[in-house]
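Fill in residues.
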């Protein structure tokens, strides 16, 4: 079996198959969606709050470093990877010694201001030790709703990819109030990092969106409430019934399964694959790209034009 493509020969796009790298299980017949996942060249990885943080509110440092090492392996194999990371408010809450996540908007923004710098420092230092450069990109709603800013953001991300940089994205919670406290009567461009990651995947023409959370994927019913719940490994097309049956907001993050399904819908409408997988599973990214059928895979639909995505 061929070794993974190097930086000068990036893997093929979604419509062709590129062999996975070292550690791949013996050859076997995969479904076309899993073949395409393994061949993805441009990847958006969203790390949720429940992946970055421990249950007690502390930082899941070893888990975060493991994720960074997996992203670095993908980057060194010639793939372009962008990370959308939650955790700024949680890290700020921990650093300030607050007993619980803040409730008021001003307190959340203060915690985000403290935590965002710490979060980025962790990413930058870890990637530097692995021979890569990380770049912080903080976004507000206007970066998606204003056409000129949308195009400028797209150009910046393309240049970062060209330079071999790993962009680390988050909403600018310190100045933006839409995500922390959606305003009545407004329909925000994004209200959580699930949606943000999906919009970024669509606007950058990504091949794959990976939504990492604290559950194994989409289940037939809530696994927290029923022992009869079964994992759904493949969703060819999202239906209103699936969306209606999904749960809402999570315990610590702002998203939930419904938020992730809506994100998958945005990404697949833009022509990308999407997968929801458990970010607390050791080596989850490596195992996905080695062909393991982890999580729930959502198949893409015909892509849209750039202006239609905006």
């Amino acid at each position: 079996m061929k070794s993974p493509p190097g930086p000068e020969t990036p893997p093929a796009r979604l419509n062709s198959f590129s062999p996975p790298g070292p550690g791949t299980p013996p050859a076997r017949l995969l479904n076309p969606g899993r073949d395409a996942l393994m061949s993805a060249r441009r990847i958006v990885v969203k790390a949720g709050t429940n992946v970055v943080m421990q249950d007690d509110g502390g930082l899941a440092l070893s888990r975060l470093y493991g994720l960074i090492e997996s992203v670095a392996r993908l980057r060194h194999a010639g793939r372009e990877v962008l990370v959308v990371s939650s955790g700024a408010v949680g890290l700020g809450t921990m650093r300030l010694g607050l007993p619980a996540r803040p409730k008021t908007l001003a307190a959340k923004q203060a915690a985000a201001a403290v935590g965002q710098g710490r979060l980025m420092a962790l990413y930058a230092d870890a990637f530097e030790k692995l021979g890569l450069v990380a770049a912080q990109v903080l976004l507000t709603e206007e970066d998606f709703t204003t056409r000129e800013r949308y195009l400028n953001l797209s150009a910046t991300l393309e240049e970062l990819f060209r330079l071999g940089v790993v962009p680390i994205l988050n909403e600018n919670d310190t100045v933006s109030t839409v995500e922390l406290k959606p305003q009545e009567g407004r329909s925000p461009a994004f209200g959580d990092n699930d949606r943000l990651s999906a919009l970024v995947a669509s606007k950058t023409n990504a091949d794959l969106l990976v939504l990492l959370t604290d559950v194994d994927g989409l289940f037939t019913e809530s696994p927290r409430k029923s022992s009869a719940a079964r994992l759904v490994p493949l969703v060819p097309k999202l239906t209103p019934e699936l969306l209606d049956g999904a749960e809402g907001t999570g315990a610590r993050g702002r998203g939930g399964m419904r938020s992730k399904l809506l994100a998958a819908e945005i990404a697949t409408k833009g022509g990308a694959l999407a997968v929801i997988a458990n970010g607390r599973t050791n080596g989850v990214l490596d195992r996905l790209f080695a062909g393991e059928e982890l999580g729930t895979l959502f198949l893409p639909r015909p892509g849209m034009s750039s202006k239609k995505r905006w």
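The two ends are 41 Å apart (CA to CA).
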